[in-house]
Amino acid sequence: MPALERYLHHVTVDWPSPDETAATARLRLADRFPRTALRRMTHLGLLVGHVLEGADLGPSDAVVYATTFAEARALEEYLVSFPAASPLLFQTSIHPGGVQQVLIPRQQSIARLWPMAGGERLVEQSLLAVLLEPAARVGWVGGEEKGTWLCDHGMASPLAFAFCARVSADPTGAIGRIGCSPEEEGDDPCPSLATLARALRDRQSLSWRSAGTCWRIEWS
Amino acid sequence: MSATADFLPCEIEACDALTAFGDAQASLDGLLAGRKALALTPVLGRAGGDPVPLALRGSLDETMPPRWLGAAQMLAGQWPEGRWGHGRTPVVVTSCNFGVGSLYAYQRERDPRHLEPGAPHAAVDLIRRSLGWGDQLSIFSHACVTSHLGLAHAARLLHAGVADRVLVLSFDFLSPFVTGGFHSLKILNTGFPAPYAVRETGSIGLGDGAAFAVLRRGAAPSGGFTVEAHALFNEMYHVTGNQPDGSGFSACLAAIATATGGRRVWVKGHGTGTLEAGRLEAEGVARQFPQAPLVSWKGSLGHTLGSCGLVELAIALRALRGGRIPGTVGSSGPTFVDSVALEPFGAASFDGAVLTSNAFGGAHAALLLSAA
To answer: What does pTM read for this prediction?
Structure first.
């Protein structure tokens, strides 16, 4: 693994209270979205929309979007809509709805969208995708919404949160940096998506080693 | 709107696919013969519903183990040996639906075994354990352009020096979960798809699909094939629609056109059978590649969703080797543009091919394939 490094320029995390639902999030974030879009947005879409606000991404930029479970509530509701399957819930439950729910109402085209799923190594693999993306500005976005009955079976997140870090190759004015470099020893667990979101929220550094590589997130 | 292409040439060391016809060669043979794998099938399987055109490799109803696991195991017999998922030989897995259909089976039957592959990472972990891969793998899911993302990411891994070889696996098998959803959108109806044909009502067919490619950095040696470049663009105009002026299509096609460098190409389009997107796509291709024949194979194989880009790449490779390119099975004139090729044609007068896919959200993807 060659050494790769990029810089953090803008980081926003939305970590709502544990009892927040899509309905209460709609009230909390109502002034941030067009009313016509608001009523159809999922909890995750609302949170992603909130954190994407200051990202300042343009049509030549890219988004790497990481989520293990995506629109869990839409999926749960779509499943119970059978045999009269709901077209809206079908569309909404399709990965990567969270980002598209936000960017479509804003008519905000982007060059590349890299929606990533995954479990134990999702943070590491999405970090690698960010480091390999040549766009001038890259939104490293992630999040989950809280499921109900799917959560009981490990098929949905028990937490709701979202984060967005705007990343570039330019160190000027950076608030932190992310990267990887060769490291012979060590095989640490990869941080979870929730751990990453907390570290971004609290400006805590993270580092771990795996497969001959040291991965790190550091603050200036 | 504008997009740029990644010029990251990669040799295709191996590539094959599974469709309702069989492997890539069987799929090519079916297409060249003008046969349709699509057949009218109740949209909800055992539970009935409207008959819709599906191209299946088995029953639509969910099975245990899932049908896509067997397909991955079958393809594993075709790809080169390697320590896949370890160190410098990572795996990229792409799908649109993974094992989500099994959650609907659980919803109906309450059999907890259906829960195991329900989440994307859980489905991939089932394949990983079955095939003995390590955990160096990335998972992408971007609806029907998803396998293009897998190939493009693999090219980046190779050119950044992160990997020596990358295995890209893509799969999407149908289930009542998926067919019920597309039927609710009314684009999966009782009609058979006729890609790029001018007609009253648009319709699509859906198909099972799985495919893999093993990529290496750099151009292929003589007799081989190279994926020269990738282009991606996301117009974000509408969840299921495109900019009415076709600018989203044009942005991606213009980017890949810069990579062709004067090569004479034919174009394998997305061509699902929808009317508006089909027209915009055909017109965009005719503008960017005025000399290129345009074909779609989804009128025969059905739309294999997230796997379609890689499935159709594997078939295109077989077609180039055999010297005959299948036409647009299922369509007849008139078509949106004159360049739509309804019948097979010879590959000898072309230097390469442009392969495209599109997806919900106005996502566009294209790659340039060339023969050494």
So the answer is: 0.98
pLDDT at B32: 98
Enter the CATH code of domain B10-193+208-213: 3.40.47.10
CATH architecture of B222-371: 3-Layer(aba) Sandwich (3.40)
Cβ proximity of B146 and B306 under 8 Å: yes
CA–CA dist B67, A38 (Å, integer): 38
- Asked if the Cβ–Cβ distance from A104 to B237 is below 8 Å, we say yes
Q: Which of A107, A117, A119 sits opposite B141 (nearest CB)?
A: A117
Whether B162 and chain A come into contact, CB under 8 Å, resolves to yes
B135 contacts in A (CB within 8 Å)?
Answer: 120-121
Give B149-205 pLDDT, tens digit per residue: 999 999 999 999 999 999 999 999 999 999 999 999 999 999 999 999 999 999 999
Nearest CA in chain A to B247: A109
Q: In chain B, which residues have pLDDT < 50? A: none
Contact A162, A14 (CB under 8 A): yes
CB B27 within 8 A of CB B19: yes
| H or E element that contains B131 | helix B120-131
- Sorted by where each begins, the domain ranges of chain A are 4-219
Coarse DSSP helix, strand, coil percentages of chain B, rounded to the nearest 5 percent:
35, 25, 40
Complex prediction ipTM: 0.97
The CATH classification of domain A4-219, taken from the options 3.60.21, 3.90.1010, 3.40.47, 3.40.50:
3.40.47
Contact A121 B135 (CB under 8 A): yes
Q: Where are the domains of chain B?
A: 10-193+208-213, 222-371
Chain B stretch 215-244, residues whose beta carbon is closer than 8 A to a beta carbon of chain A: 232-240
